[in-house]
Amino acid sequence: xxxxxxxxxxxxxxxxxxxxxxxxxxxxxxxxxxxxxxxxxxxxxxxxxxxxxxxxxxxxxxxxxxxxxxxxxxxxxxxxxxxxxxxxxxxxxxxxxxxxxxxxxxxxxxxxxxxxxxxxxxxxxxxxxxxxxxxxxxxxxxxxxxxxxxxxxxxxxxxxxxxxxxxxxx
Length: 170
Prior knowledge:
Helix content: over 70%
Number of domains: 2
CATH architecture of the largest domain: Up-down Bundle
Strand content: under 5%
Structural class: mainly alpha
Largest sheet: 2 strands, antiparallel
CATH class of the largest domain: Mainly Alpha
Number of strands: 2
Number of helices: 6
Distance between the termini: 76 Å
Order of helices and strands: EEHHHHHH
């Protein structure tokens, strides 16, 4: 194995180790420069923002809605998994529960995103989300005495509806 290489038309000789070290050193230097450039850009982006009136943490403004919707997502996924398990065992009694939970999950996930962003249509989405959660709650209540997952999902939907209504009222 050769330890040296000729570079370019000048015939200059350099060892492989030196070439690798130089290449790695250049890569590290470029990475450091890019990172520091992003830091400067981020600092420039926030320059002069001291006098504006919008809070930086809009999520905290809607934290109760975010928490309620996330609980719906979590409990809804557990309920959905429970329903799938029973359907797989041949029990069709939870087929409508699957439908309503499946509709609720993307709606509450969207509500989380809209609330975190303080999106302009947040109240519109909250109205629709309250309706969809109402459908899910009503269906899950039918099964709550026999299935804890359905009861937990229904309770979380009720909480989300309450938070949506509070948001709409503001």
